[in-house]
Amino acid sequence: MSSLGELRTLTRTRGPGARVREKFPDNKAAVAFLLPWLIGMLGLTIGPIVASLYLSFTDYNLLQPPTWSGIENFVRMFSDARFWNSFRVTVEYVLIGVPLQLALALALAVLLDKGLRGLSFYRSVFYLPSLLGGSVAIAILWRQVFGKDGLVNGVLAWFGIDGPGWIGHPDFALGTLIVLNVWTFGSPLVIFLAGLRQIPAMYYEAASMDGAGRLRQFLSITFPLLTPVIFFNLVLQIIFAFQSFTQAYVVSGGTGGPSDSTMFFTLLLYKEAFTDLDMGYASAMAWFLLVVIAAFTAFNFWLSKYWVFYDD
Question: Does 189 share its domain with 257?
């Protein structure tokens, strides 16, 4: 009887309102912890994105209020020869630099995964360029390495070759930046190493018993099982490559190089926004870049169903 009385008392005390509160628990603490992130997301990300979309349809020079101009910025953009040249340079940088970077990272990851002594040390050494590759100091160092009197020409001089000024030559300037991008392979390397460690060793043991060599094991086991990681690295590195700015700005001295050979899209956008103070036109360029990156990403996701294999 006492238990039944306690149950009735508890039911009266809690009532239907308490059951509603249980169904919709109090999340004030969670909201309080999330509030700084929400403010940052709205104020520093979503807000500027929406503002830039509006500014892309205006004539705005940072000094006077923006005035509505419709699609004038986009019409001007698609008829601007310098715009299309910067887009071509950037796409060339992406299509050449990213595959070379991933190929080198994958090759070294496979090499380091073979139980090399001091793996942690080598992993740290190889990752270091990724930490420094986008810095101003490394870009300045790159100018010294590929300058007319730089390290590369010094080595070539030993063989009696008079090398050109690689950065100052329109045929080679972009290539030096591609080499710099390939050199910063540390980030995808570490991700590849993590992916290789997830492949069960029994597959290789079975393949060895069947007489499969190293190349056959790589093509039949390693590569198919690593395709999700390769796809992840590919999408990330394409996005990063399209956003490259520091290397082109410092190496070319902010001019875009000889004959605009290293005038990346982001560098031209920067010059339009903060040198010419044409913020409306720069906003239109930024939205074009966003659409291009989204298109490349969507295409990669569509294409992935033909070559990426997931373990079911």
Answer: yes
Dump pLDDT digits (tens) for 132-176.
655 666 777 777 788 777 788 888 888 888 888 788 888 888 998
Tokens of 300: 């990669």
The C-alpha atoms of residue 101 and residue 189 are separated, in whole angstroms, by 9
Structural domain total, the chain: 2
Same domain, 51 and 146: no
**Domain for residue 267, yes or no?**
yes
Contact present, 242 and 224 (Cβ < 8 Å) = no
Domain enclosing residue 46, as ranges? 2-55
Residue count of the chain: 312
Q: Cβ(61)–Cβ(74) under 8 Å? A: no
User: Rounded to two decimals, what is the model's pTM?
Assistant: 0.83
Instruction: Please indicate, yes or no, if residue 258 is contained in any of the structural domains.
Output: yes
Cβ atoms of residues 299 and 238 within 8 Å: no
Per-residue pLDDT tens over the stretch 208-251: 888 888 889 898 899 999 999 999 999 999 999 999 988 888 88
Shared domain check, 215 and 93: yes
CA distance 189 to 196: 10
